[in-house]
Amino acid sequence: MGNQLAGIAPSQILSVDSYFSDIHDFEYDKSLGSTRFFKVARAKHREGLVVVKVFAIQDPSLPLTNYKQELEELKIRLCSSQNCLPFQKFTLNEKAALLFRQFVRDNLYDRISTRPFLNNIEKRWIAFQILLLGDQAHKSGVRHGDIKTENVMVTSWNWVLLTDFASFKPTYLPEDNPADFNYFFDTSRRRTCYIAPERFVDGSTFSTELESIKDPSTPLVDLTNNNQRTRGDLKRAMDIFSAGCVIAELFTEGVPLFDFSQLLAYKKGQFSPDQVMGKIEDSSIRQLVTQMICREPEKRLVAEDYLKQQ
Predict the structure, then answer these.
(1) Burial class (CB in 10 A: 0-12, 13-18, 19+), 160
(2) Within its chain, how far is the Cα of 25 from the centroid?
(3) Cys staple from 234: which of 115, 143, 216, 286, with CB 3.0 to 4.6 Å?
């Protein structure tokens, strides 16, 4: 999916409100930002505000119907998971694919730096819910694929909801080309990396017709053919690593454990997050995070086991 969009000229990209002309029951409210992958808007519905993610179709050969079916199945599986907020509606037309979910004002990244600041009890309650939502999703047969502070929503009463399940994003990424990470996962442009180290693999395993292009901003991942290397099964341990990074950031007042280059160095044993981990004053949380971000995925426990430990 990234390959086909990498060279699109800005003049071909429409404003986000233009995609609402064919949508009934939803009224465009305002833009919430955009990346090279999605345009995001807030819309009004008779039942409340919703978030709409717009994927502009530049290549009709993309298997968007398959991805839509995946998201519909995911919605059904998560129907009884109280802490999970999957996309509720999916619209596909000639211009774009649109994903709809309930609007929640604050994500965890914003809440960490918003007064009144969270106290230790509130942080532990949020951390507990992060483990709980992971357990709920995994027991439903769902893997998230992109757990980060921007996708963990927090209500005014500190109820936590996991949003923007990313089954349509590649499982594996080339470690020698940051374009894929930037395109699919660095939506905040903070360079913070929550992706499990085992998801980064040798870039030579990605064979696409665009590999000969020298532009380093061109993603190597091609989602048009459901390549098993990129679309391999997400593992529970991958989500556990990401959740551990989120919990660490919660207890370090917003200091992330890894950026992209540090995560790759961590995978090779050339970097340690101990300096940031030292900012976590709660020893039990520090021990929890240490286990969750273990370099070897087989040594990470399932979410239920971490819940039993706390």
Answers:
(1) buried
(2) 28
(3) 143
Q: What is the pLDDT of residue 213?
A: 44
- Read off the pLDDT of residues 200-213 as tens digits, 9 standing for 90 and up: 999 877 655 444 44
pLDDT value of position 38: 93
What distance in Å separates the CA atoms of residue 220 and residue 40, rounded to the nearest whole number? Answer: 24
DSSP 62-115: S-HHHHHHHHHHHHHHTTT-TTEE---EEEE-SSEEEEEEE--SEEHHHHHTSS
Taking the C-alpha atoms of residue 88 and residue 84, their distance in angstroms, rounded to an integer, is: 11
- Compute, in degrees rounded to 10, the torsion defined by CA atoms 213, 215, 216, 220: -40
Helix (H, G, I), strand (E, B) or coil at 53: strand
CATH number of the domain enclosing 42: 3.30.200.20
Q: Assess if residue 41 is contained within a domain.
A: yes
From residue 72, give the alpha-carbon distance in Å to each of 65, 87, 91, 164, 167: 11, 8, 11, 13, 11
Residue 42 domain boundaries: 2-102
Residue 78 phi/psi, 5° resolution? -95, 10
How many whole angstroms separate alpha carbon 230 and alpha carbon 21? 34
Can you give the pLDDT at residue 126? 99
Q: How far apart are CA 153 and CA 24, in angstroms?
A: 27
Ranges of residues in the chain with a pLDDT under 50 are: 1-11, 209-214, 228-229
Active site members:
146
Residue 277 falls within a domain, yes or no?
A: no
Radius of gyration of the chain (CA): 19
Domain count, the chain: 1
* pLDDT recorded at residue 232: 76
Cβ proximity of 78 and 115 under 8 Å? no
186 falls within a domain: no
